[in-house]
From TrEMBL:
Segments forming a coiled coil: none
Organism annotation: Leucopsar rothschildi (Bali myna)
Domain Ig-like, residue spans: 1-59
SMART domains associated with the record: IGc2
Keyword Thylakoid found: no
InterPro entries from the UniProt entry: Ig-like_dom, Ig-like_dom_sf, Ig-like_fold, Ig_sub2, Immunoglobulin_dom
Lineage: superkingdom: Eukaryota
SUPFAM superfamilies (UniProt xref): Immunoglobulin
Keyword Manganese: no
Alphabetically ordered keywords of this record: Immunoglobulin domain
Protein name: SMP protein
Annotated gene: Smp
């Protein structure tokens, strides 16, 4: 909110977020997030009278993945 209305720009880390499939702004909307979307997001509001920003940390929770077993497992007959 401001007069004149501020230009809002969203960043993820140092990268500007552009509107693209899965990303919309005002408010920022991220569709189908994954753990790779975790990080610091910053909104910068700017007009000729000044500039303000706010940041937030997004942590995407997810279910554990099955362990990956590499190598050979030897079991004697009749044992578990």
């Amino acid at each position: 909110e401001g007069l004149p209305p501020p230009l809002l720009t969203w960043f993820r880390g140092p990268q500007v977020l552009r509107e693209e499939p899965g990303v919309a702004s005002l408010p920022l909307h991220l569709a189908q997030v994954s753990p790779q979307d975790s990080g610091t997001y910053t909104c910068v509001a700017e007009n000729r009278h000044g500039r303000h920003n706010r940041s937030l940390e997004l942590h995407v929770a997810y279910a554990p993945r099955p362990p990956v077993l590499n190598g050979t497992l030897w079991v004697l007959a009749g044992e578990q």
